[in-house]
Amino acid sequence: MPPAPHSGFFLTFEGLDGSGKTTQIKRLGTWLTEQNLPHILTRQPGGTATGDRIRELLLDSKSRSIAPMTELSMMFADRAQAIHEVIAPALASGKIVVCDRFTDSTEAYQGGGRQLGSEIVLQMHRLICGDLNPNLTILLLPDLKASLSRARRRNTKIVESAAVHQDRPDENRFEQEQFDFFQRVADKYREIAAREPLRVVIVDGDHSIEEVHRQVITAVAANLKTQPELWPAPSKTRP
User: Fold this and answer.
1) Separation between Cα atoms, residue 97 and residue 105, nearest integer Å
2) In a domain, 42, yes or no
3) Model's pTM, two decimal places?
């Protein structure tokens, strides 16, 4: 099924955990608000009541025996619900949708990291997501070892909190993988970017938060300017 026509703008952020996605998405959300641009922020897995339950199963380190194909299917179940409930309605109403991860993550983590390959991921995307693709993807690729170190330090705190609050998932399952897994993920991300250079903008290297934000805003503004219904007369704060 082809994606429904819409007047919105679909923007995704991709990268390994620890790459700074969460920080940059929050900063972009603040900038979009300052520009009076209608938008929503969402994430995958998660973003809906059903998706949050799937996220808990997928990311909790207690979920040790999930098979790669099961993991892949759960990712797309979450995505189908998010498109139906959140993404498609927002795009149809003319909003900018900023999503933390989408199918590129599945291709990188399950296709690359789990070695399922790209083709099965792309086939499921066409079937389940109606081949809905982002207008723009920001891919954050800092140094791999530094990125993993940041993610593991952060998740150590989450694990400690989960140990105190035993009903809380720790979201540490993927960080328990070995370095080779994440190298395959990073390699697949670069393969995706090379395949789709017009959609994917890479922010490469360990830049400051401010410099990454500047690069993100430059890319987002350049793309929004091609859609005058979303980008009216420029304000003083617009690049």
Assistant:
1) 17
2) yes
3) 0.88
